Amino acid sequence: MTPNLRIQGRDAQSNNILAGKAVASAVRTTLGPKGMDKMLVDSMGDIVITNDGATILKEMDIQHPAAKMIVEVSKTQDAEVGDGTTTVAVLSGELLSKAEELIMKGVHPTIISEGYRHAAEKCREILETITIAISPDDEAALIKIAGTAITGKGAESYKETLSALTVKAVRSIVEEEEGGFKVNVLENIKIEKRAGGSIDDSELVDGLVIDKERSHPNMPEKVENAKILLLSCPVEFRKTEMDSEIKITSPGQMQLFLDQEEKMMKEMAEKVIASGANVVFCQKGIDDMAQYYIEKAGIYAVRRVKKSDLKRLNKVTGGTIIQDLDQITTADVGTAGLVEEKEVKGGKMTYVTGCQNSKAVTVLLHGGTEHVVDSLDRALNDALHVVGVVIEDGKIVVGGGSSEIELSLRLSEYASTLKGREQLAVSKFAEALEVIPEALAENAGLDPIDMMVELRSQHEKGNKNAGLNVYTGEVVDMWENDVIEPLRIKTQAINAAMEATVMILRIDDVVASTGSANQGMGPGGLPDMPDLDMDAAY
Question: Nearest to residue 83, comparing CAs of 24, 34, 141, 147?
Fold first, then answer.
């Protein structure tokens, strides 16, 4: 193997740590209510403006394999909890930075890894002592939790409206299970965006809203006691798999061809009509001739429906998704109380409501521009997941850097009881946790040293809920200031950051793989250092 196809030992570790720190520094300025936004511009000129950590890291063109691990951690945090994505990326970067200090002193990465695992386990124990139990029926507390998730996003000025909408949506889909509650936000809550109107026009619909209108204006606008047919196959002619042509030598043959075409379309339409359905949702196209016969039968038809919407309709109405028109039976037809087309700012939409045994709801978001609505979507998505997590777990902690400071102090005390070099790793883990309140202070334009001294002082006096009020620059009781978060945000962030850090630290050899064709690699097949394409991202 040639030397330039491999990086070993200390060089490999430094290389990977540098990449991880670079990713963390890219999102650090977005942390907290006073965090700044990033403008992400792609090759087509489309822009995304956000301070959501997961969105920023997902959109950035990151090539370095170690840096991609931090991105994966952020994605996992987003999927598991919905919020805390910036926190986990920043914490990962700081853990790597502290580990690098120990490596420079001669502490072996394996010792650091063991110490970090030990520290993360101890953090879980400490967090259990500062958690606050909450009831799923405590609507006021749930609204505060949703408000904390929305704070700092572009939609913050409409926090009260969105928080109330969030809690109402989540509580309407809660399912009781043996030993607790289950909230499936992804499957049961649909967010539909529409530019036009103001944020105050946003509403919660008990049912599904499909961003499609009737395929023909003569079809009924409203269908009560709807019998719904779901089609994933087209109601139109199929194209041949290979190029073909038909030679017509006389006008009579042309007429026969047209008559046969019309007959075939009529047969296809009659199969749909024979199902007994009075509403049809089709994933593919519906031919104009077929539309004519379907419209004459008084059927409400919608074409080009998204696959995800068809799956939701399948769950909500109880109808079977049909893949072949010849296989339609009356048992495949679903039901709904009402299907109607409504005028919504910016166009028309189809509302499907009154479904039996359905927990599905739709949040219809409005905003002045596409960018405003996209920002609302990201904020609401975080809030919905956070409220769902709290209802499932029933445990919360206070925010504003309060939990991290308490963990840091208690972990430092615990480290002093340990023997050997593991004590150093646990101490560094405790120091790394302070990066969150420190970043909150920096992003608010406050002096981080003064703020950290005051925070430590308050916690050493026993004020476990003392955190940083970034608006006044004072250390206050976060519980009284309604800054509360799910316990799972903290536990997931600490565990995920620890696991990613340990994985990166244990790598001492980076080799260019032959199977990858060296994609995303720098000269000689090794990763560029650190190739994050920051200029393209901002």
Answer: 147
